[in-house]
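Quick review question:
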């Protein structure tokens, strides 16, 4: 019965013709596995090289535009700050902290009054630090006429 089944599978090309030696099939499988591993390593190195090239291309194409966008964003922040406070900010520290404040506000952790209080406290701290720095920088200098 098994003989007929094997002949039928061979006829339907579900099994290779003739008997298969297990040792040779295992050896063939290991050879194929090694070949696939080599191909996999080649493809991985090609992919890494492609990623590096792509990053360089993006930097060449979009680097300038991104820098200009960030500069314009800072300029807008300074203009808005001047409009609200009638003076330029001493430092861009508030610019870099503004996103943190927005994230906290969106998260619902702080309400608007608390945000304003925190902003005023941060501004006061910054002004005090800058005043002390100015005093330290000036030092006991004698002004001559």
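Suggested answer, residue by residue:
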């Amino acid at each position: 019965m098994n003989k007929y089944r094997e002949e039928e599978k061979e006829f339907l090309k579900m099994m290779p013709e003739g008997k298969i030696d297990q040792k040779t099939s295992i050896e063939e499988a290991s050879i194929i596995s090694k070949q696939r591993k080599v191909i996999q390593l080649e493809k991985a190195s090609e992919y890494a090289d492609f990623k590096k090239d792509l990053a360089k291309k993006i930097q060449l194409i979009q680097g300038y535009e991104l820098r200009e966008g960030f500069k314009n964003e800072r300029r807008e922040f300074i203009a808005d700050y001047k409009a609200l406070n009638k003076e330029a900010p001493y430092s861009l520290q508030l610019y870099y902290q503004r996103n943190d404040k927005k994230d906290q506000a969106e998260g619902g952790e702080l309400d608007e009054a608390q945000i304003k209080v925190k902003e005023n406290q941060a501004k006061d701290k910054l002004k005090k630090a800058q005043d002390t720095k100015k005093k330290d920088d000036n030092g006991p200098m004698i002004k001559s006429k």
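Why it works: Residues 7 and 17 are 9 Å apart (CA to CA). The helical segments are 2-11, 22-85, 93-106, 112-138.
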